[in-house]
Design brief:
alpha+beta, 2 strands
């Protein structure tokens, strides 16, 4: 991919901590991971809404992180949706 950055556009990078859940729960973890998903995490529909709002204000690189993002069953769906919106996932 050949992305040109337009520094007049902001933000350039958006990091979404999509979950804190992680089976390892390492003490040194920057995410303060926990062993299960929190009830307050965004739902799939809320995640889609968030991605749409992000796209309305710009085209940042979106990094979905956590805990362990693969513990969310909708991770691929959300990434595909963001990509379909034209976001750089």
């Amino acid at each position: 991919m050949n992305w040109k950055l337009d520094y007049a556009q902001a933000p350039l990078l958006l990091i979404w901590e999509i979950t804190r859940a992680c089976a390892l729960t390492c003490q040194h973890c920057r995410a303060s991971a926990i062993d299960q998903r929190e009830p307050g995490e965004l739902s799939t529909d809320e995640g889609r809404t968030l991605l749409g709002q992000i796209r309305q204000v710009g085209n940042p690189v979106v990094i979905m992180t956590g805990g362990e993002p693969l513990l969310r069953p909708d991770i691929y769906e959300l990434a595909a949706y963001g990509h379909a919106l034209g976001l750089r996932m």
